[in-house]
Amino acid sequence: MRLFIELVKRSFQRQLTYRAATFAGLATNFFFGMLRVAVMIALYGARSDVNGLSLRGAITFTGLTQALIGFLSLFGWYDMMNSIYTGAVACDLLKPMGYFTFWLAQDFGRALAQFVLRGFIIMAAYAVLIGIVFPQGIEQWAAVIVTMLLAWLISFAWRFLVNLSGFWTPDARAIGRFGFVLLYFVTGFLMPLRFFPDWFVRLCYYTPFPHMVNTVVEVYLGVLKGPQLVWALVKQASWAVLLVLVCQLTLRAGVRRLVIQGG
Amino acid sequence: MSYVIGIYRRLISVQIRSQMQYRFPFLVDLVATGFITISGFVTLAFVMQRFGSIAGWKLGEVAFLYGMVETSFGLMDMIFSGFDPGNFGRQTRLGRFDQLLLRPVDITLQVLGSEFVIRRLGRIAQGVVILILALTMIHIHWTFVKVLYLPVVLSSLIAFFGGLNIIGATISFWTLESIEIVNIFTYGGTEMMSYPMQIYPHWLRDFFSYVLPAIFLNYYPSLYFLGKPDPLHFPTIAPFLAPVAGFGVLGIALAFWKFGIRHYQSTGT
After folding, report:
1. What is the mean pLDDT of chain B?
2. Does some domain include residue B267?
3. Domains of chain B: total
4. What pairs with residue A54 in β-bridges?
5. Which of A43, A136, A141, B214 falls 20 to 30 Å from B176 in CA-CA distance?
6. Which of A102, A111, A130 is nearest to A73 (CA)?
7. How far is B157 from chain A (nearest CA, A)?
8. What is the pLDDT of residues A29-81, one digit of tens each?
9. What pLDDT is recorded for position A257?
10. Is residue A180 within 8 Å of A75, Cβ to Cβ?
């Protein structure tokens, strides 16, 4: 456990050193957020509520999703794949810690740093400049924290699996690109899934993807309440457990397949 | 001139041949890049089904804007990827740009020929499909001038986006790393131009009209093609400024690029 915490800390600090990149990312995320706010306002026009979502809620959605980009590495994450291709994976596999846990710890540090440096600042800017809604009461705040942690775990497991394909093929970048492109659409990142037809939303919820973004959004906005909220968190947690198991099994098969490239 | 074209053709054919060596990744990439465009369009279609229209623009009309931008940006991204700021910054840092400078061929031509990403065909194809879908959903009153003007607008858009890429690449002479801020103008620009630009706040619209003339490249020509009234009350010549704005930006970018090369200092790598 001490090793785990140490890795989280190191990874967090590493993120803090890329100041220029963080600032650029922040500016870009915020600019896109502004464009998306304008689209929402124009779409709503004179409407005040669309399928349970108010205009203020829809605006908050754009801020929240822009804030999640860095936290969940929504636009892609290839660190592990790169380490496979440089050969660093050979050392990593020898470390006195499971390979999955090793990357989990590092990604937690990365996600925390991204949350503090980008997510939090974007939400603060939204709150001051545009106006957003906030969760009500201690229970909802607690639910938001839980759902965000689960969303991160699901997103990490997915990214781990995508990167793990590097154990099988020397050019998994293309697979990676596809694996990440998929996320824009079916996680409810581009638009709240509530705006989509019901049959399509049902289809999405057969996969773990909506639990990365859409569930977080709906918990934060308070769209899900009482038993619905609990049920959503249970489903999210189940997907997290299932995906972590899949990661472990795939990893075990992959280690037997792995040929170390270079060195 | 034929000498220049010959060299360019050779550089590009090397690129194409090397990229075709990896057939499987190439195919997956083709599908992945195309998928972005398609998912963007399906999202738009779903949302428009729920809302009916955005600022008085129907699905087919917004799809027209979107298809124009996707097709031209995809083409630009294939042709001008040598100037892609991220990639170019890396090449400069590694000292590869110095190698190019030593060769007895025009440097702009070499950078242009140094990268030709054929997997962008995926995005281009999807852009064209969206454009065709848009044309089946709306009724454009085609005139002779409109038929002639459409390819002019598309090539102006390519020139505009290419100019932005060249400006980004030139800036990396000084910063030596990819400056993500440039993404605001390239990717932000495409996102912005995919919607009717009347929806954006005043200051943002002014910036993209008078500083970076994006509004004349897609929004105004589209008003003309679709026969829609102009809610912003620009002079009636506005829809026909696309080539001036597009090739103007490209010209300024090339001048800046020449200036950058004259002041270029190697990293010594």
Report:
1. 88
2. no
3. 1
4. A49
5. B214
6. A111
7. 20
8. 999 999 999 999 999 998 989 999 999 999 999 999 999 999 999 988 999 99
9. 80
10. yes
> Does residue B237 sit within a domain?
yes
**Identity of the residue in B28, B51, B191 whose CB atom sits nearest the CB atom of A32:** B191
Which tokens is B131 given?
């454009």
| Residues B200-259: tens digit of each pLDDT | 999 999 999 999 999 999 999 999 999 999 999 899 999 999 999 999 999 999 999 999
Q: Can you read off the two tokens belonging to residue B170? A: 């030139």
- B46 → closest Cβ in A39, A181, A200: A200
A177–B50 CB contact, under 8 Å: no
- Inter-chain contact B46–A197, Cβ cutoff 8 Å? yes
Q: Which residues of B touch A173 (CB under 8 A)?
A: 25
The mean pLDDT values, 10 residues at a time, for chain A of 263 residues are: 88 83 86 94 92 95 95 92 87 88 95 93 95 93 96 97 89 84 90 94 95 96 93 97 96 83 52
CA B17-B19-B24 angle, 5° bins: 120
Tokens of A192: 């709240």
Query: Could you give the CA distance from residue A98 to residue A120 in angstroms, rounded to a whole number?
Result: 31
Alpha-carbon gap, residue B48 to B62, rounded angstroms: 10
| pLDDT tens readout for residues B204-213 | 999 999 999 9
- B80 contacts B162 by C-beta, under 8 angstroms: yes
CA angle B30, B36, B39 (to 5 degrees): 125
State how far the alpha carbon of A137 is from the alpha carbons of A142, A195, B35, in Å.
9, 27, 41
Domain that holds residue B221: 2-262
Residue B72 within a domain: yes
Could you tell me the pTM of the whole model?
0.89
Joined tokens for residue B143: 């005139």
